[in-house]
Design brief:
The protein is α/β, with parallel strands linked by helices. It is built from five helices and five strands, in the order αββααβαββα. It is globular. It binds zinc ion.
Amino acid sequence: MRPVKFDPSPDPSADRAFLGLALAEARRAGEAAEVPVGAVVVRDGEVVATGRNRVRESGDPTAHAEVVAIRAAAARLGNYRLTGCDLYVTIEPCLMCAGAIVHARIRRLVYGAAEPKFGAVQSLIPLTTLGLPHRLAVASAETAPEAAAEAAREARDLLRSFFRARRRPTRPGDREGSSEGSSRSAGG
Ligand SMILES: [Zn+2]
């Protein structure tokens, strides 16, 4: 990928709307006791597919919101290349999802909150500077404050309240998810 760090949105109101849909998916994930992360694939201003984190439900460690949405979009379009598609996700993608995004040839990635522990777009790894053979435009709360900052706040709040609730053991010895450090490994 060539270094494309800043992609000012051609339409901030569209970004806000699609991030809103991704947030709705994140809420649904949280309601299903999954780490609340949601994603939407968009082409030509239309939603192609949505996805929410469902690692527990499907017993699949790769069922992060981005991968779920990308698989659904590829199935719907009948093409493993999602050329001309943009991906909106509530939280910065992890290493696996960043790889899937590149392999799918996603055109533009818009995400809400940065993920300091597992984020593989800017937090742990500066993805756009790696020289991968795909040009990906990235917009986040840091680079596109108008569209993404509000979504970032809400996405972060969802994660915080999710892990706060899980830190309260429902029975003695229930320590699962007791550390926020397990957040992204728990799927998102
Ligand atoms: Zn992921």
